Automatic annotation (TrEMBL):
S-adenosyl-L-methionine binds at C255, A256, A257, P258, G259, G260, K261, D278, D304, D323. This is 16S rRNA (cytosine(967)-C(5))-methyltransferase. Coiled coil: none annotated. GO terms for molecular function: methyltransferase activity.
Length: 441
């Protein structure tokens, strides 16, 4: 199959079936696309259709429901119609071309019997666009382009800031770089970017961060293959400095994949005794690739952080970075498929897992040591409520984040830890809590 619209529909349908993520499905789909002229236009269109349809799916679903006379049972057909509606609503593709190509995509999906339905629905959407917008404008799912449960959760947590968060989540994210300060300075690398014709500016908080004016292929970045720079959001870049590793310390990066924070720690202190732990072997391959590109090393452990008795040698760590598995609701602008993959019932399950891992990691931390708890979530159940409960139940745990906020005014102070919000702060949504373990008397 060499039809980007048909492949996009197949990807979107699999997301609804919970059979993967854009990160895993797109490479599969891109392998089936042929660009004879070498321009890459078909792959770019496939990517745009997948990301854009996922980003606005909650809104497009409501439009499709208004236009359909009955429930569409074929999941690929429903997904194709969402792809078609996305083109009409959000792209510069001429309307007649978008409709015609989407009808042809139905044939590519062996849905020839439904071409009339596809054509009729999309033409009806075009004719009644203004009326549909008026009719649906009072629906919070339509106005926010977030599923109802998530829209309500964000509004409950952040009140008047919710609208700004929704807007940020619905925009394309910037491309942010982390300069390897062990190899060159940020200003030096900024000069290299300028010489390569790539406009960029320094990040506000991360001393290693640069934001590009427009995204580029990593192959265009000077010295990328030699480890001079990595791609990482500004909020994620704060983890290394917050953990503050010292020379020769024994450090654990729990839930380490894909390895951005692991590499940053070694850029800050190359002589660390660092272990990178993750439960997924294929994701650890990414950690190894990143370490090799930067020319640094770490002990790789494939195991469950929640059950250290199966892999821990009994020697405690000076510092632990726990980037806990979470809902990823702070990085929706980078991963819009979260809107399709996450459910309200996932949150208490994730919170329970986070609590289990946090308690397990605490046993591995030396007295006087530091544990940095982090998530890319913006939901309090996974963040401030999680850490506040842990500190209340753990006599030798102290939340040192308030002192940190006095030194570096990053984010919003919480009952425990601090929160960064998309649209409110410069980077993605992230949560950090710096916990200290009491020294033995």
């Amino acid at each position: 199959m060499n039809d980007p619209r048909a492949l996009a529909a197949r990807v979107i349908a699999r997301l609804y079936q919970d059979r993967g993520s854009l990160q895993r499905l797109l490479p599969w789909a891109e392998k089936q696309i042929d660009d004879p002229d070498g321009s890459g236009k078909n792959r770019a269109l496939l990517r745009e259709l997948c990301y854009g349809t996922a980003r606005f799916a909650p809104r497009l679903e409501l439009i499709l429901d208004k236009l359909s006379k009955k429930t569409i049972k074929d999941e690929e057909l429903a997904a194709l119609m969402l792809v078609g509606l996305y083109q009409l609503e959000y792209t510069r593709i001429p309307d007649h071309a978008a409709i015609g190509a989407t009808v042809e995509a139905a044939r590519a999906l062996k849905l020839g019997h439904a071409t009339g339905v596809v054509n009729g629905v999309l033409r009806n959407a075009l004719r009644n666009k203004e009326a549909l917008t008026r009719k649906l404008s009072g629906n919070p799912q339509f106005s926010s382009a977030h599923p109802e449960w998530l829209q309500q959760a964000i509004k409950a947590a952040w009140g008047t800031e919710a609208r700004t968060i929704f807007t940020a989540n619905n925009t394309n994210p910037p491309m942010t770089l982390r300069v390897n300060l062990s190899r060159n300075s940020r200003d030096e690398y900024l000069g290299q970017l300028e010489a390569a014709g790539i406009p960029a500016q320094a990040c506000e908080w991360s001393q290693a961060g640069l934001v590009l004016e427009s995204p580029v292929a990593v192959s265009r970045l000077p010295g990328f293959e030699d480890g001079l720079v990595s791609v990482q959001d500004q909020s994620a870049q704060l983890a290394g400095p917050l953990l503050d590793p010292q020379p020769d310390e024994k450090i654990l990066d729990a839930c380490a994949a894909p390895g951005g924070k692991t590499c940053h720690l070694l850029e800050l202190q190359p002589d660390l005794d660092l272990s990178a732990l993750d439960i997924e072997e294929d994701r650890l391959d990414r950690v190894i690739e990143n370490l090799e590109r930067l020319g640094v090393g770490a002990q790789i452990i494939c195991a469950d952080a929640a059950e250290p008795e199966h892999w821990w040698d009994g020697e405690q760590f000076d510092r632990i970075l726990l980037d806990a598995p979470c809902s990823a609701t702070g990085v929706i602008r980078r991963n819009p498929d979260i809107k399709l993959l996450r459910r309200a019932e996932d949150i208490p399950e994730l919170a329970a897992l986070q609590g289990k891992i946090l308690r397990a990691m605490w046993r591995l931390l030396k007295p006087g040591g530091t544990l940095l708890y982090a998530t890319c979530s913006i939901l309090p159940e996974e963040n401030s409520a999680q850490v506040a409960r842990f500190v209340a139940e753990t006599p030798d745990a102290r939340d040192n984040t308030p002192q940190l906020l006095n030194e570096q005014p990053w984010g919003l102070p919480q009952d425990a830890g601090m929160q960064l919000l998309p649209g409110i702060h410069a980077g993605d949504g992230f949560y950090y809590a710096k916990l200290e373990k009491a020294k033995n008397n």
